[in-house]
Amino acid sequence: MSVKIRLARGGAKKRPYYRIVVTDSRMPRDGRFIEKIGHYNPMLPKDHENRIAVDTEKAAEWIKKGAQPSDRVARFLKDAGVYEWTHGNNPKKGEPGEKAKERAAERAEKEEAKKAAEAEAAAAPAEEEAPAEEAAAEEASE
Fold it and tell me: So what's the pLDDT on residue 19?
C-alpha cells in the first residue's frame, strides 16, 4: 500500500480550505484518509499564524514509515523543518513535441528555399545584363 501525505479540499465554492491528511494513494482526493495531521487556509494572508498548521511529530513518523508527501505538502514540511524538499528539474518539459519539431523543420526548409530563390533571382538578372553589355560593347566596337 502506497501512503501519501497530501491536501484534501474542503470549504465552499471559491473559498478553499485544505486538510493535510495521510491517506492511501488510491483513495480520492477528498475521500477516506488514515489521519489528519494539519490544515492549510490559503484565504488567510501569508504572514498569518493560522494559515498553515502541521503536527510535525506525526508528519515525521509517517515519513519514517514511508509516506510520500505531495509537492505542496513537502514545501510546508520543509518550512517546518521536517522534510528535505528540493525543487524538481525536468529539462525535457520545455522541449517541443514531435509535431512542433516537424513544423519547425518544414518552416526552416521553406525559408532556405525562399532565400535560395531570392539569391538565384538576384544573380540571374546580373548574368543577363552582362551578355547584353558585352553585345552592346561589341556593336560599338564594330
Answer: 95
Local structure of 25: helix, strand or coil:
coil
List, for residues 102-121, the tens digit of each pLDDT value: 999 999 999 999 999 998 88
**For 20, what's the count of Cα atoms within 13 Å in the CB-facing half-sphere?**
27
DSSP bridge partners of 12: 15
Cα(18)–Cα(42) distance, rounded to whole angstroms? 8
Cell numbers describing residue 87: 525543487
| 80 Cβ contact partners less than 8 Å away, ≥ 6 residues apart | 54, 56, 59
Q: How many helices (H) and strands (E) does the chain have?
A: 3, 5
Full-model pTM: 0.62
CA 62, 65, 70, 72: dihedral to nearest 10 degrees?
Answer: 40
Q: Which three cell numbers stand for residue 96?
A: 517541443
